[in-house]
Known about the structure:
The chain is an alpha/beta fold. Helices cover 38% and strands 15% of the residues. It has two domains: 242 residues, Aspartate Aminotransferase, domain 2 (3-Layer(aba) Sandwich); 133 residues, Aspartate Aminotransferase, domain 1. The chain has 14 helices and twelve strands. The strands form two sheets. It has a seven-stranded mixed β-sheet, sandwiched between helices. Strands 8-9-12-11-10 form a five-stranded mixed β-sheet.
Amino acid sequence: MSNHVETQCIHGNSDFSFREETHSVAFPLYQTATFGHLGLGHSTGFDYTREKNPTRQHLEETITALEHGVDTVAFSSGMAAISACFELFRPGDQIICSEDLYGGTTRLLNTVSAKNSLTVNFVDSTNLDNVRAVLTPAAKALYIETPSNPMMNVTDLRACAALAKEHGLLLIVDNTFLSPYLQNPLTLGADIVLHSGSKFISGHNDTIAGFLTCADQELADRVRLIAKTTGGMLAPFDCWLTIRGLKTLSVRMERQQANALAVARWLQDQPGIEKVFYVGLPEHPGYAVNAAQAKGSGSMISFRTDTVETAHKILNQVKLITFAESLGGTESLITYPLTQTHPDVPEEMRQRLGITDTLLRLSVGLEYVDDIICDLKQALEA
């Protein structure tokens, strides 16, 4: 079987242990809670869907192949995957995180993780001196988003991996914004890569999913035990939908990032737009680092308007673009991070990061790019 990502998106991993006997072109949906035993002490390998299901296994092994890992666990959401990840740690452990993170992750760390007595330090990970400054003997992990949500900051993953190895830390990378098609953190030295599979992997704004992929078998076994025990596994039908969406990941990512570059360049020239944050623009401060560690820049753009009135006007006047909280699907979506994705980030941190009442985040979809631009134009001029 080819190891090219385009082929793996469609056919998965040829080495998966379950063989579908009918050779169905579309992998079957095994919509069952439990499986019968062949006899006492004799199992088909599948006993109970919370632990293992053929549809989920096929999806997990496809993601494992795409991310070049040893095992993947599919969860009921991205937040379920992140929650399971932090179950790897014990009270008193220190976790060092990028300060610019999805707001749900920040909320989890400031509430559940704090309740569990994890010590969390948020730093600007684009400069690793900031990480070194907070390192203590209790440090156990470095948690990175790159590009980050919503400010599109870029962190050097190879440098992070070297630092993590030097200090015995796990390097955990949220790869949602670029997907395994454009970036593979495990090949750069990460230990765990995670995704909100609801986004680019599923790709059609119709499924909630999450994934954790590990580079090491012992670590993967720990994650799988946590998943089986806490129970936040992805249901068979959602696995089937995700498999279906994943088949077009490569072509979607290519088209969406081409659209995004055109939209970002257009936005730069518009009155009412003060600043555009897109890692595919050469003037972006993280452009060179991203180009060195990823195959592309993705389709996520944030931009700042001149006034709050302009920001609100765009949100209220777009027609083709949907004002909605998510990203990575076939439809273009525009989001107001202040009230939608990041309201639980402490206000002082929001202001310092630039998550203000004039910041908008745009997930560029598959529509004809001139139609996306025309919609933004009419909204600005309304």
